[in-house]
Amino acid sequence: MKLFKKLGRMEKSDLIVNIIVTILAICSLLPLFWLVTNSFKPSAEIYKMPPDILPKSLYLDNYKELFSNQPALRWTFNSFLVSFVTTGLSVILSAAAAYAFAKLKFKGKNIIFAIFIASLMIPKETFIVPLFKIIVAFDWVDTYQALIVPNLATCFGVFMLKSFFETIPDSIRESAKLDGANEFTIFFKLMLPIAKPGIGALFILNFVTFWNDYMWQLLMARSKGMNTLTVGVAGLMQEISPNMGLKVAGAAIAAMPMIVIFVLFQKYFTKGITAGAVKE
Amino acid sequence: MENSIDLKKEKTKKKYRGIENPWSGYLFIAPQLILFLLFILYPVIEGFRMSLFQSNYVSETFVGLDNYIYLFKDPVFLKSIANTIFFVVAIVALTIAFGLFVATAVFDKSAKYVSFIRGSFYLPVMVSMVVMSMVWNFLLNPANGLIAYLLGNLGFENVNLLGDKFWVMPVIIFVTFVGNVGQAIILYIASMIGIPADYFEAAEIDGATRWQRITKILIPLVKPTTLYLTVINIIAVLKIFVVIQLLTGGGPNNSSVTMMYYLYQNAFVYNNTGIAAAVGVLMFIVALLLSLPQFKTFGKQK
């Protein structure tokens, strides 16, 4: 009843616009709804028109086949390994640099920071040829290093965390200093715990980025066993095979962790994305 | 007098230095800096150099600007520029317009409703263009896809949108837009919520309608966000690759080739690394020019 009263007080145009927005919001979820529900249908049922909105029964063979006849388990493992390690290392390295830029004094600080920020706007893809050459020279193609190390070279985290460190008062640092703590102790014992909300947001944001990475993983993972989920299932899709159910289940598996993460951590996303953008 | 002040300064400086080791700053940024030099700066410089050589992965010969001359004579490359520009204009216009439409509608509503709207539009962004492209590929399949079936019911027979020279770009633009607009919505809502409520209250007392409040107050006030979104969306579209690879492979008849796809094909399919590097350099310059105004805003924040 309360809701109706509220709706009654809205301007008519506002009400209509919001009904349209709500409908469109639901529509934008439909492709994913289609994906998840169809992954539980046998191929014949997926082809059936008009389609059933929900599967007739919870058909699990697509997933069984994906994990027994395809190296999907290996792909999932690779995706988790690469995303976790890249994210973890990148957060620590960014936090250290961000802390230095926010709190420490050293020559050339502003210039180096400006160059870091400038690199944010340059898409990595434009220099993918020389980057690829470097990896070839290192003889890293088809290794985990190749999937992890070059991705650590992103300054987004430095930019995002710097503002978090700046909000921490200097007096905390000074009193720790007087107690004889050195810069590393201060960073690990004091600053990191205080900056936790920012680090959490960055962690999730980076995890999603690395999980969803495609072009670099496609170039680096040559053997089927080194593939990550996105590359693996994209490869499945390009195979000429009528086994629609298997392909749909593959795409669903690649999407699933992101859906779960989003449901669990929605507020971190909003925080992370807005912190990365222009501040007022 | 002056000397004693200087002396005092010197002393405090020394004392300060005593606690603050000037090297610890460098130590903290060193790992990030090394990664930056090795995997960003060096490749950029190397990319410029490579673009002046005719090369594959085995040998190279210096050719000066020949790669660039070749590019501007290649009809496929010119097509890719035209497509990329069309793509950029369409995506930016759609994203800004739709982002504003959604954000202005919901920004002053209850928190739960806002997070539902935000979430629904952001979820497709989260699950990545790879998965979204796959889903649309299934849906758009001319033989047994849902969209062909629905269009068939409306009386259109045998529709193959991705195989149609005219429809292929609009369809790809739509797919990209759906997988992308959530970010604009989140940023717009965040900056609109940040605007003090008194502005609207004052306008309301003066009898302004909601439409007037939106167009005269809200949209002008979120202009920095609009600028930011414009730049990052242009740059994001420049590097669009997955959608093209998974949906059309550049076809039919090159009508959906973009610069990034052209670069990729030359680099990793035809082994024309010099040509690919030259395309990269051109895209790099475009991205840099576009983001210059953005750097100025970053500078002002300090």
TrEMBL record, chain B:
<feature type="transmembrane region" description="Helical">
    <location>
        <begin position="119"/>
        <end position="139"/>
    </location>
</feature>
<dbReference type="Pfam" id="PF00528">
    <property type="entry name" value="BPD_transp_1"/>
</dbReference>
<dbReference type="InterPro" id="IPR051393">
    <property type="entry name" value="ABC_transporter_permease"/>
</dbReference>
<dbReference type="InterPro" id="IPR000515">
    <property type="entry name" value="MetI-like"/>
</dbReference>
<dbReference type="GO" id="GO:0055085">
    <property type="term" value="P:transmembrane transport"/>
</dbReference>
<comment type="similarity">
    <text>Belongs to the binding-protein-dependent transport system permease family.</text>
</comment>
<feature type="transmembrane region" description="Helical">
    <location>
        <begin position="166"/>
        <end position="190"/>
    </location>
</feature>
<feature type="transmembrane region" description="Helical">
    <location>
        <begin position="268"/>
        <end position="292"/>
    </location>
</feature>
<dbReference type="GO" id="GO:0005886">
    <property type="term" value="C:plasma membrane"/>
</dbReference>
<keyword id="KW-1003">Cell membrane</keyword>
<dbReference type="InterPro" id="IPR035906">
    <property type="entry name" value="MetI-like_sf"/>
</dbReference>
<keyword id="KW-1133">Transmembrane helix</keyword>
<keyword id="KW-0813">Transport</keyword>
<feature type="transmembrane region" description="Helical">
    <location>
        <begin position="226"/>
        <end position="248"/>
    </location>
</feature>
<keyword id="KW-0812">Transmembrane</keyword>
<feature type="transmembrane region" description="Helical">
    <location>
        <begin position="23"/>
        <end position="45"/>
    </location>
</feature>
<keyword id="KW-0472">Membrane</keyword>
<protein>
    <submittedName>
        <fullName>Sugar ABC transporter permease</fullName>
    </submittedName>
</protein>
<feature type="transmembrane region" description="Helical">
    <location>
        <begin position="85"/>
        <end position="107"/>
    </location>
</feature>
